[in-house]
Amino acid sequence: MERKISLTGVKPTGMPHIGNYFGAIKPAIDLAKDYDARYFIADYHALNSIKDPEELRSMIYEVAAVWLACGLDPSRTLLYRQSMVPETFDLSTMLMAFTPKGLMNRAHAYKAQVAVNQERGKDPDDGINMGLFTYPVLMAADILIFDPHVVPVGKDQVQHLEMTVDIAEAVNRTYGKELFRIPEARVNAETKVVTGLDGRKMSKSYDNTIPLFLPRKKLQKIVMKIVTNSQSVEEPKDPETCNIFALYKLFTDEKQQTDLAARYRAGGMGWGHAKQELFEQMDSILAPMRDEYDRLINDRSYIDEVLRKGSEKAREIASRKITFLRKEMGLS
Ligand code: ADP
Ligand code: TRP
Questions:
Q1: For the stretch 141-153, what's the b/e string if a residue is b when 16 or more beta carbons lie within 10 angstroms of its beta carbon?
Q2: Is the pTM of this model over 0.85?
Q3: Residues whose CB is less than 8 angstroms from the CB of residue 283 and which lie 6 or more positions away in sequence, other chains included
Q4: Measured from the CB, is residue 252 less than 6 Å from ligand 2?
Q5: Is 76 helix (H, G, I), strand (E, B) or coil?
Q6: pLDDT tens digits, 10-32
């Protein structure tokens, strides 16, 4: 039986944090075991905001190295660059003809920027380029060109996925047949939200993150910054309400968790000790991936080769789709 297709796009936005790893990267890589997975670096999307060529280039290598170091197997999963599959832009142009402008006016990413401008008393469209405004159309093209069954995304992307479905349905309705498969969003479970240094959701916007790959010493330093209450060493402690323990659970098995929980409850263990335990576990899990990352980030030609091969295969599939659509729409 043919495997179902899973597709997602990743914006190159710098070193991900542990929340991104457990919430997005690991689930997508795990999904690739059962699905025919196609994962790409959304570099044209990134161009909307990053105008420094060297910065953009570095971020593209960085995101590719992260995913490869985290276990993405390029011989099983298509890993490619959006900009290297130009058929996407053919489709994006086609989809423009089916996308009501009003739909774009409602997109969160665009509306958020308008709201910032209004707050600052600026023109509503200040600093907004057409790339940002039409972003959901390009995203729909990224997706629909490969007819995926599922699209793993974060909650913030659900609205964009709904727009993709709206646009695909408009095309299917117009031609009276299923030119596109209707994709399904696979949203990260909210129950798995990783907490940050201050106990809130780990997020770049809260400045409470632990970056995924840090040298051992730096990782230790940041773990020591986790916020705790002022209980003394002697006092028994509750693992269930503790930020350190919440992170510890991500890196350990049940037995290790039961053991540490018992030491919490018995008293006599200070927060410094708990942090040290967490740090050692984290480091032992992350070190092999970090070493692989360090190796890959210094081997740009290997990454180039992976992305070139992946993009070539992706283009074969995409160009068949475009040929089919051109016929169906009367463009050839
Ligand atoms: P940030 O909040 O740091 O800006 P993003 O919004 O860029 O993170 O998230 C990228 C991906 O990582 C999304 O799929 C999102 O659901 C996931 N993610 C981000 N933070 C967390 C977290 N603390 N716990 C679990 N998943 C997360
Ligand atoms: N918009 C997504 C983000 O900001 C990235 C993205 C671009 C994407 N194209 C996609 C995600 C297609 C899933 C499918 O994170």
A1: bbbbbbbbbbbbb
A2: yes
A3: 216, 219, 220
A4: no
A5: coil
A6: 999 889 999 999 999 999 999 99
